[in-house]
């Protein structure tokens, strides 16, 4: 994720609660209209978001890139990717959205552990966050079929959606696979540092030395820092802090644990260090974020979908 200090926008983290028995939900219907608002903040969330544009045009900001969209296009936003979209001035666009907890979904098909390399490639789509219908009509059809199954809820629709989403996962991996020398080199960088990414994601709550991460990747510390920066656009320490902040947001939103307990649980050595990093990354204190997230929870349409 880009350092928010390099982005001229406020940042919001959105945590989506999925049904306990089904790691997929959709925002359906004509009410999901995207207005032509000025973008003043970006957000990221805890799942994969796929949008389908039925009408209109505009642009999508994805971290440091601006991508145009039009009717028939699909947007692909991996977990923890900073983004926001808006319609062309004086117009509106109509979307439907699909949200998938890919880790939970894939565990149903790979009980021994889902394919980490492919999953990591999915998190790094490169320039493929907007996919035009003519570029990949099969992916276009898959997304439309998933949305339609969730809309109609016919008998065994969940089983059907599971199968379609597995096909979707494979097709997205194909989209993110290297198509040129440059993208091939970038993918090699990702695969080289993937042991460090996996280790951080599973051990963020413990003290982690950057030297240990370099050893896991079987490269020198200097080379590791250079590869990590080139592939993730951030330093290993910054990535570790962002993972800890992300996990702390989940605890702030969903539990009554004290901010001190949360700071220690996610791996910060002191509450002062946690408060400083949280303020820098999120633009507000943990207490302010907790209060805001809970007030937004009551009125945010992304949660009301479960009441329909």
Description:
Helices cover 48% and strands 18% of the residues. The protein is an alpha+beta fold. Strands 2, 3, 5, 8, 10 and 11 form a six-stranded antiparallel β-sheet that branches. The protein is globular and about 50 Å long.
Hey, roughly how much beta strand do the residues contain? 15-25%
The biggest beta sheet reads:
6 strands, antiparallel
The radius of gyration is: 20 Å
Return the CATH topology of the largest domain: Jelly Rolls
- CATH top level class name of the largest domain: Mainly Beta
Helix percent band: 40-55%
Q: Tell me the number of helical segments per DSSP (H or I, 4 or more residues long).
A: 12
**How many angstroms separate the termini?**
34 Å
Number of strands: 11
Rounded average pLDDT: 81
CATH superfamily of the largest domain: Regulatory protein AraC
Low-confidence segments: 1-7, 180-184, 296-308
Q: Main attributes?
A:
single chain, 308 residues, alpha+beta, Jelly Rolls, Arc Repressor Mutant, subunit A, 2 domains, six-stranded antiparallel sheet, three-stranded antiparallel sheet, 12 helices, 11 strands, disordered C terminus
Q: Could you provide a short overview of the structure?
A:
By secondary structure, this protein is of the alpha+beta class.
Annotate the secondary structure layout.
Blueprint: E1 10-14, E2 24-27, E3 33-34, E4 41-45, E5 48-55, E6 57-62, E7 65-70, E8 74-77, E9 83-87, E10 93-100, H1 102-107, H2 116-122, E11 130-131, H3 137-152, H4 157-176, H5 181-203, H6 210-216, H7 221-232, H8 236-254, H9 259-265, H10 271-282, H11 286-299, H12 301-304
Parallel strand pairs: 1-4
Antiparallel strand pairs: 2-10, 3-10, 5-8, 5-10, 6-7, 6-9, 8-11
Helix pairs in contact: 2-4, 2-5, 3-4, 5-7, 6-7
């Amino acid at each position: 994720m880009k350092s928010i200090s390099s982005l001229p926008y406020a940042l919001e983290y959105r945590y989506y609660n999925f049904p306990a028995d089904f790691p997929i939900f959709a925002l359906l219907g004509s009410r999901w209209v995207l207005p032509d608002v000025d973008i003043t903040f970006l957000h990221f969330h805890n799942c994969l978001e796929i949008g389908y544009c039925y009408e209109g045009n505009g642009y999508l900001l994805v971290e440091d890139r601006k991508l145009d969209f039009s009717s028939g296009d699909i947007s692909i936003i991996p977990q923890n990717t900073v983004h926001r979209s808006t319609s062309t001035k004086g117009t509106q666009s109509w979307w439907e959205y699909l949200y998938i907890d890919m880790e939970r979904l894939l565990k149903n098909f790979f009980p021994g552990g889902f394919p980490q390399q492919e999953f990591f490639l999915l998190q790094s789509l490169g320039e493929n966050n907007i996919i035009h219908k003519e570029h990949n009509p099969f992916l276009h059809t898959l997304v439309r079929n998933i949305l339609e199954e969730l809309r109609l809820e016919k008998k065994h629709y969940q089983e059907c959606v599971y199968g379609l989403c597995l096909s979707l996962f494979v097709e997205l991996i194909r989209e993110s696979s290297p198509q040129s020398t440059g993208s091939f080199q970038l993918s090699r960088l990702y695969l080289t540092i993937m042991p460090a990414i996996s280790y951080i994601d599973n051990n963020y709550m413990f003290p982690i030395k950057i030297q240990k991460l370099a050893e896991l990747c079987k490269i020198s510390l200097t080379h590791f820092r250079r590869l990590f920066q080139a592939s993730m656009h951030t330093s290993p320490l910054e990535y570790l802090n962002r993972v800890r902040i992300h996990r702390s947001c989940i605890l702030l939103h969903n539990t009554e644990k004290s901010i001190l307990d949360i700071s220690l649980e996610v791996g910060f050595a002191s509450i002062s260090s946690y408060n400083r990093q949280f303020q820098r990354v999120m633009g507000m204190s943990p207490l302010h974020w907790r209060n805001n997230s809970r007030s937004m929870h009551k009125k945010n349409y992304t949660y009301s979908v479960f009441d329909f």
